[in-house]
Amino acid sequence: MNLPIPGPSFFIGKGDDSLISFGSGQPDLPPPEEAFQILKTFRNFKYGLVQGEFALRTELAKQYPDAEPDDFVITNGASEAIDLTLRAISVPGAKVALPRPYYYSYPHNVTLAGMEPVYYDLADGKIDLDVFKKTAKGCKAVMINSPSNPTGTVQDVTTLKEVEQFCAREGIYILSDEVYKDLIYVRENYLLHGPHVVTVNSFSKTYAMCGLRVGYLYSKDTALVEKIVEMKTHTAMNTSILAQDMALAALSAPPSYVTDYVTIWKQRRDMMYAGMRALGLELWEPEGAFYVLPKFKQSGRVVSDLYYTYRIITYDGAWFGAPDRVRFSYALDVSKIEEGLRRLKQFLETEYTSY
């Protein structure tokens, strides 16, 4: 029997010509050409502003209604934005409501901040408002992730508005993880509003700049933003100013950069969804991001066998709170998707029949 895979870190950064990686959510498409132009002349290697370079914050403010540059903090990816926000609002033992399935880091982020994760289970990837309200009541904060990693679902606007109103009444912080907001196939993104809403975003997915680690948070809660900046002063200090300059340049790319890529993601989504349905797998059709989450029995064994025997990287749904599923990313070339589906078919017709 193949060895079990301990967690996502086993796969991150791995890759060779024999592997088909349906694992990490890392776009295979290039960043905008505008970002590369910065490298020709960049010569600034001094410390930068802890809150983030003013020019980048100014440009981001144009994308949000009534926003000011001081409403933003530029972070080392969206991950640092979530980490800093949770620690800034932390009350020892307080509860934070997370969707389940969840992005695999969320529970760890909460516990590392000294709080307790509790879960509102999604129904086919969607928020059930009764379940949400029952779970969120009395919590310090809730996490919303739409479009979702790992489900690929997009929450209905009416649902998000009800979440806003409920959390505003209850005095609950909302951390809205919107790193896939530009990769939606069904509608425009809806920006959550409220007195204690923190919007988290990143250049990793929209602009294919994962390794540069440029994320940000946006909030109209001035006191919270100031507390986060003070905390960042004593942790990471400034985010890479080279990466921030490249991010700023990426924002100057024509709108077609994003829309053309969304067309590609949707074509790949259609291919993955149709291919898996043809293999008899049960899954819902993604509405955004670039993940499918089909059902599998013994998901950990599936991930191990696919990797060691068929040279396919996948992520165990158990890492996301969905132990009866396996996450596949379709952030890879069509030819690799085709080959991956061919290998998956072979697996389903051989080893999987004996599970």
From TrEMBL:
The protein's required cofactors: pyridoxal 5'-phosphate
Biological process annotations from GO: amino acid metabolic process
Alphabetical keyword list: Aminotransferase, Pyridoxal phosphate, Transferase
CDD domains with a match to the protein in the record: AAT_like
Top-level taxon of the source organism: Bacteria
InterPro entries in UniProt: Aminotransferase_I/II_large, AspAT/PAT-like, NHTrfase_class1_PyrdxlP-BS, PyrdxlP-dep_Trfase, PyrdxlP-dep_Trfase_major
Keyword DNA repair: no
Enzyme class: transferase
Keyword Methyltransferase found: no
Domain Aminotransferase class I/classII large per the UniProt entry, residue ranges: 19-344
EC number: 2.6.1.-
Molecular functions (GO terms): pyridoxal phosphate binding; transaminase activity
Name recorded for this polypeptide: Aminotransferase
